[in-house]
């Protein structure tokens, strides 16, 4: 039996070979600090009480399939949320619930791409997006996010990658893995590029509520109301329910005939899989009515804020590592000094596997985010602050001995 060619380039960044090595080391009886996925409940973050109640109340009705694109009460809450963020000319019909943003990313790529069509993806990139493009037999084409510009991309650089096969641009804001939050000016410039070339924007805004330091998030759809934008959001991170698989997308600006056809295809694809997890859907109204949980977590004294502080401070105290402090999400993308630690091109996974074996710490190397430079890895800021600081210290220590082990 032969597997389909389209699967050959698919690889999970967060649950790939380094993760398998971490599980192997763990099976040998070691305690491994696994910082591979942004999975807060796995680190003991409690589910908000409001959601626990919503789940309990929904037991009977959640036993039935919902409408394929989502239950009315979930859509009403999402519509109100989107309107509060400045979306224009949308209705419940433009909202599609999914088993996480993950399912919807695949769905939109299936709906939009013919073999060989191109989608612009950030580099580094949460590789759900490149994998979804590849599964639809499309081609991810990467645009750069620049470390020396606090990991911002550049609209002109993005435009330089556009060909006659380009159909969409993925914007992850706030970003995974860098935690960067994009300025309105940058978003507007990117929207203009998309408009000039008739591209759909895939705006992955799953971290829009995970903000620190007084930062405010602007939705791409609010800045570009007259052009096609698919905005992705969900409860996985803001409400600690990754396992519920609760995501949604809103189609704004799909006003012409092609746009209407596209939405009909999304409806058909939603119907083929009947509906998304209904428990998760019935949590949406309660969750969106309870922003306080997330705000508290991201404020001084809050769980994620204090973890971010501990991580960044520890990196700043280290000898071999540096980082751009993140204002959003729960990640930072750490640089290993390439002048002092000589990881060869293509060897970042090897570095991460040795780190798991030596220090029992798992991080995802840059290549897990389609990043070509070998001296980067992502930290998930979910362990206790002291544990995070200790892990950073251990990684720094591992860097100290790396060249000695490999070159002497
Ligand atoms: N988009 C981004 C940028 C993510 O970081 C993640 C998960 O880490 C997802 C989408 C997937 O989210 P979901 O749990 O809704 O599938």
Q: Quick recap of the structure?
A:
It is built from 15 helices and 14 strands. With about 400 residues, the protein is of the alpha/beta class. An 8-stranded mixed β-sheet has the order 2-9-8-7-6-3-4-5, with helices on both faces. A 4-stranded antiparallel β-sheet has the order 10-11-14-13. It has a two-stranded parallel sheet with strand order 1-12.
Features:
single chain, 408 residues, alpha/beta, 8-stranded mixed beta sheet, 4-stranded antiparallel beta sheet, 16% strand, binds pyridoxal-5'-phosphate
Task: Explain the overall architecture.
With 408 residues, the chain is an alpha/beta fold. It is built from 15 helices and 14 strands. Strands 2-9-8-7-6-3-4-5 form an 8-stranded mixed beta sheet, with helices on both faces. Helix 5 (100-112) crosses helix 10 (257-272). The protein starts with 16 loop residues before the first helix and ends with a helix. The model has no long low-confidence stretch (mean pLDDT 96). The structure holds pyridoxal-5'-phosphate. The site of pyridoxal-5'-phosphate has 14 residues, from helix 5.
Mean pLDDT: 96
Counting helices, strands and paired strands, the structural category is alpha/beta
Taking the alpha carbons of the first and last residues, their distance comes to 46 Å
The backbone outline, from C-alpha atoms, is globular
Oligomer: single chain
Radius of gyration: 21 Å
Strand order of the largest sheet: 2-9-8-7-6-3-4-5
Q: Catalogue the unreliable spans.
A: none
Question: Helical content, roughly?
Answer: 40-55%
Number of strands: 14
Strand content: 15-25%
SSE run = HEHHHEHEHEEHEHEHEEHHHHEEHEEEH
Bound molecules: pyridoxal-5'-phosphate
């Amino acid at each position: 039996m032969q597997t389909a060619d389209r699967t050959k380039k698919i690889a999970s960044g967060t649950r790939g070979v380094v993760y398998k090595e971490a599980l192997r080391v763990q099976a040998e009886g070691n305690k491994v600090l696994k910082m591979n996925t942004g999975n807060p409940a796995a680190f003991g973050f409690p589910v908000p009480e409001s959601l626990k109640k919503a789940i309990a109340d929904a037991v009977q009705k959640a036993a039935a399939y919902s409408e394929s694109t989502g239950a009315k009460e979930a859509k009403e809450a999402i519509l109100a949320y989107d309107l509060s963020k400045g979306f224009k000319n949308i209705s419940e019909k433009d909202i599609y619930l999914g088993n996480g943003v993950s399912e919807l990313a695949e769905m939109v790529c299936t709906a939009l791409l013919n073999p060989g069509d191109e989608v612009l993806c950030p580099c580094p990139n949460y590789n759900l997006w490149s994998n979804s493009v590849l599964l639809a037999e499309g081609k991810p084409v990467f645009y750069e996010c620049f470390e020396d510009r606090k990991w911002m991309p550049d609209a002109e650089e993005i435009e330089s990658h556009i060909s006659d096969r380009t159909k969409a641009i993925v914007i992850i804001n706030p970003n995974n893995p860098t935690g960067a939050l994009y300025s309105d000016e940058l978003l507007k410039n990117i929207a203009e590029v998309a408009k000039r070339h008739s591209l759909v924007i895939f705006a992955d805004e799953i971290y829009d509520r995970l903000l620190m330091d007084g930062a405010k998030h602007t939705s791409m759809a609010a800045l570009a109301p007259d052009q096609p934008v698919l905005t992705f959001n969900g409860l996985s991170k803001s409400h600690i329910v990754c396992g519920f698989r609760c995501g949604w997308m809103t189609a704004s600006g799909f006003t012409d005939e092609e746009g209407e056809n596209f939405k009909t295809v999304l409806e058909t694809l939603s119907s083929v899989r009947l509906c998304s997890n209904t428990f998760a859907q019935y949590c949406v109204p309660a969750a969106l009515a309870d922003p306080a949980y997330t705000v508290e977590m991201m404020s001084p004294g809050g769980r994620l804020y204090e973890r971010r502080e501990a991580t960044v401070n520890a990196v700043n105290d280290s000898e071999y590592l540096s980082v751009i402090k993140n204002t959003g999400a729960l990640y930072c993308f750490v640089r290993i000094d390439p002048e002092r630690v000589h990881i060869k091109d293509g060897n970042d996974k090897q570095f991460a596997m040795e780190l798991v074996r030596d220090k029992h710490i798992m991080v995802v190397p840059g290549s897990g985010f389609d990043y070509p430079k070998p001296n980067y890895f992502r930290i998930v800021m979910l362990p206790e602050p002291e544990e995070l600081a200790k892990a950073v210290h251990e990684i720094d220590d591992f860097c100290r001995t790396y060249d000695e082990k490999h070159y002497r």
